[in-house]
Design brief:
Elements (H helix, E strand, L loop, with lengths): L7 E5 L4 H12 L3 E6 L11 E4 L5 H15 L4 E4 L14 H29 L3 E5 L12 H20 L6 E7 L8 H6 L13 H12 L9 E4 L4
Parallel strand pairs: 1-2, 1-4, 2-3, 4-5, 5-6, 6-7
The structure holds NADP nicotinamide-adenine-dinucleotide phosphate (NAP).
């Protein structure tokens, strides 16, 4: 019997990158996985349930989670991963760009949690995972908008940990360092920042392994925060 057999998972931003690796790993370990993203172009995999959803749109989030619950049941694992990355000096960041980072990276997870949490609390079980970033604790030049959004989602997670005490629902923030995904393509093309070599970065599967670690601990254990960094 696999470690997650019979479990139900929802993963946002699961069309590529870290979200895709998390969805694949949860599925390999026996879970049924509902994948949310705006589009699944080129990523179609019949073994996952793919639900189009823009996590910044409340009605989309409501509809997508209702569909996941209708198809599979109340999830045991909800991974808030969908995100966007902007690297720009503060004074060059437009108000629209700043708000876009907050909307996707901070408000998106808020909308998902707000929708799904009453179901988990009623069931007195479940695990909420937030994919933050090393930049949710550490400031970097060029991270005004992204850093604000990731510090924000850390704040959301920390409040959630307090609100979830004695509910049977657990929450984990996973803060990865640089991870080799397409998120880096435009940054490398832009060429204005020294970025780590792709070969020195974490693999998306490393982040997926951290998710599995957090959700497979005994019920008495709350893994509230995991930071993983490239070793080199
Ligand atoms: N790569 C890194 O170095 C790194 C390090 C630390 C933390 N992270 C965090 O890890 C998460 C995933 O990043 P990644 O590197 O895997 O990026 P990625 O390869 O660019 O993938 C981002 C995913 O999010 C989805 N997404 C973006 N906006 C969305 C929206 N409004 N609604 C629904 N889905 C949306 C994308 O799908 P669609 O475009 O089809 O919607 C895609 O599936 C992000 O939260 C990021 O901040 C990444």
């Amino acid at each position: 019997m696999s470690a997650l057999s019979g479990r139900i998972a929802v993963v946002t931003g699961a069309s590529r990158g870290i979200g895709r690796a998390v969805a694949d790993r949860l599925q390999q370990d026996g879970a049924r996985v509902a994948c949310l993203a705006r589009s699944f172009e080129g990523a179609h995999d019949a073994s996952h349930l793919e639900i189009p959803c823009d996590v910044t749109v409340p009605d989309d989030v409501r509809r997508a989670l209702a569909r996941a619950i209708e198809e599979f049941g109340v999830p045991d694992i909800v991974v808030n991963n969908a995100g966007a990355f902007l690297l720009k000096p503060l004074v060059e960041t437009s108000a629209e760009e700043f708000l876009q980072q907050l909307t996707v990276n901070t408000c998106g997870p808020f909308l998902v949690v707000r929708e799904v949490l009453p179901h988990l609390v009623r069931a007195r079980r479940g695990h909420l995972i937030t994919i933050g970033s090393v930049g949710d604790h550490q400031p970097y030049a060029g991270n005004a908008a992204y850093g604000a959004s990731k510090y924000g989602v850390r704040g959301l997670h920390e409040v959630l940990v307090e609100e979830l005490r004695k509910t049977g629902v657990r929450a984990t923030l996973i803060s990865p360092g640089p991870t080799d995904t397409r998120l880096w393509d435009p940054i490398e093309a832009q060429g204005s920042y020294d970025t780590p070599a792709r070969s020195d970065m974490l693999a998306p599967s490393d982040v997926a392994a951290a998710v599995v670690y957090a959700i497979t601990q005994p019920e008495r254990v709350a893994v509230e925060w995991i930071r993983i960094m490239p070793a080199s």
